[in-house]
Specification:
The structure holds two protein chains of two kinds.
Chain A: E1 2-11, E2 14-24, E3 29-33, H1 40-47, E4 55-60, H2 68-72, E5 75-78, H3 90-101, H4 107-116, H5 132-143, E6 150-154, H6 162-177, E7 181-185, H7 189-195, E8 198-203, E9 206-212, H8 218-230
Parallel strand pairs in A: 3-7, 3-8, 5-6, 6-7
Antiparallel strand pairs in A: 1-2, 1-4, 8-9
Helix pairs in contact in A: 3-4
Chain B: H1 2-18, H2 20-39, H3 47-75, H4 79-85, H5 90-119, H6 128-153, H7 159-187, H8 195-220
The chains are: A alpha/beta, B mainly alpha.
Chain lengths: 232, 222
């Protein structure tokens, strides 16, 4: 479904990605690990079509979509930025994105999505009044409003309390069980190991480790991950 | 068209709640009028000939403030990123933002213009339809370029400073012809001379609007 070959990205003289290769099959859940500045966010932004690679090739084949805007319609991207308008209510935010995505924007549909993320009863409040956890729940509803085939998540647990984290985990497990392809950048090896079925460590802009979860225990993974990020 | 309207409606709704953009645009525009009102006190008898320049200085400065806010507001919470992820042609985003910028500018211009009639003691009833045409064309030219350049400036460290630096040299033809057209309407009896500045503004708007539409996708990605 996603094929990445020799992907490089430079910001001036700094190279965020250096010849990254990765093939992702439909329905896989990949956890991306790596120290700060390893290139995880840059990689996800390129996949999401928010950034152009300096060199290399990314092929995304979600069904028969070819044009960039149709491919964007098959991707949902959630980062630590919520991409929500603080002065609009939850309902108005979702209605706006539903209209642009070509989804039904009637209240019943939107209320169902708001209910799925546990915000029923708060839909008419401006997002500015929401806690960080509530905003992240609504951001989840916004990013995946169109039920995309590919979910890209960049540090989605940042700033969430225990209840919020538990909700997000159960949401991702349920979504993955419906055959969606997920790729999540995360720092916590425990959470990444728990949710994903493939573990990829990016170091210095390339894949330093790429293993199936079934091939090693959490402790073994933590040791190998630690040895990669701690080497100079 | 529905998607352009959705972007415009969203900007309008936020503006109606916060009044951030219109208030700052109006405040700045009125301050410019007040300064000129005092500065040109000694030219009271011939002030009508200076009004076109005063008006467009005021429109251009307040419009630049509005354009600066246009994409800066989208950067809050990474809203621009969310907007870029929706499966629409990015030119649609350009036209939606341009429509919002045009409407905000026209509202500001209307208020500034009415205040200028009071400050400079002008009577213009017969000229109003022509002035509306000149203001509309001048504003469309201004926002056609300004929307693109605002999107470029918002991704830089110098965003508020950079926009006027790159905007004013490009829109000089619009401003010069808008001042000329306003002068013809206010100060000459023969409106046939209006054809040239109006044509220049219309051509400028179409050409730069098309270029901006085509380039918009590329300026939003890093």
């Amino acid at each position: 479904m996603i094929e990445v070959r020799g992907l490089s990205k430079y910001f001036g003289r700094f190279s965020a990605l250096r010849g990254l290769d990765l093939t992702v099959g439909a329905g896989e859940f990949i956890a991306l690990f790596g120290r700060n500045g390893a290139g995880k966010t840059t990689f996800l932004r390129i996949l999401a079509g928010l950034s152009h690679p300096s060199s290399g090739k990314v092929t995304i084949r979600p069904g028969n979509a070819v044009a960039p805007r149709y491919i964007r319609g098959c991707i949902g991207y959630l980062s630590h930025n919520t991409s929500l308008y603080a002065d609009l209510t939850a309902l108005e935010n979702l209605r706006f994105f539903a209209k642009l995505t070509g989804l039904p924007d009637h209240k019943e549909f939107l209320m169902q999505r708001i209910g799925q993320v546990g915000l029923s009863g708060r839909e008419s409040e401006p997002v500015r009044n929401y806690s960080r956890g509530m905003q992240q729940r609504l951001a989840l509803a916004r990013a995946f409003l169109h039920d995309p085939a590919i979910l890209l998540l960049d540090e989605p647990f940042t700033g969430l309390d225990q209840a919020g984290s538990d909700f997000l985990k159960s949401y991702l497990v349920e979504t993955h069980s419906r055959g969606k392809t997920c790729m999540m950048a995360i720092h916590d090896p425990g959470v990444g190991y728990e949710l994903a079925d493939r573990l990829v460590v990016i170091d210095k802009g390339a894949a330093a480790l790429d293993v199936q979860k079934s091939s090693l225990s959490l402790e073994e993974f933590q040791n190998r991950y630690g040895s990669i990020v701690n080497r100079t | 068209m529905a998607k352009i309207w959705a972007i415009f409606r969203k900007d309008l709704l936020i503006e109606l709640r916060t009044k951030d953009t219109l208030n700052s645009m109006l405040f700045f525009g009125v301050v410019v009028l007040v300064i000129f009102n005092f500065a040109l006190e000694s030219l009271r008898d011939t002030i009508r000939s200076a009004v076109p320049g005063i008006l467009w200085v005021s429109f251009a400065f307040s419009g630049t403030l509005g354009l600066n806010r246009m994409f800066a507001a989208e950067k809050e919470n990474g809203c621009l990123q969310g907007l870029l992820m929706v499966p629409v042609d990015r030119g649609t985003i350009y036209f939606g933002k341009m429509l919002a910028a045009t409407v905000f500018m026209l509202v500001t211009e209307a208020i500034i213009f009415v205040l200028s009639l009071v400050f400079f003691n002008l009577t213009v009833w017969g000229e109003i339809p022509y002035l509306i045409l000149v203001f509309l064309l001048g504003t469309l030219g201004f926002t056609a370029v300004g929307t693109l350049l605002s999107a470029i400036a918002v991704n830089t460290k110098l965003r508020e400073v950079l926009l006027p630096l790159i905007l004013f040299p490009v829109i000089l033809p619009i401003l010069v012809n808008a001042v000329e057209a306003t002068n013809i309407v206010l100060n000459t009896p023969d409106y046939s001379a209006l054809r040239l500045p109006l044509t220049v503004m219309a051509v400028f708007t179409i050409v730069f609007g098309t270029i901006s539409y085509l380039l918009f996708e590329h300026v939003l990605e890093d």
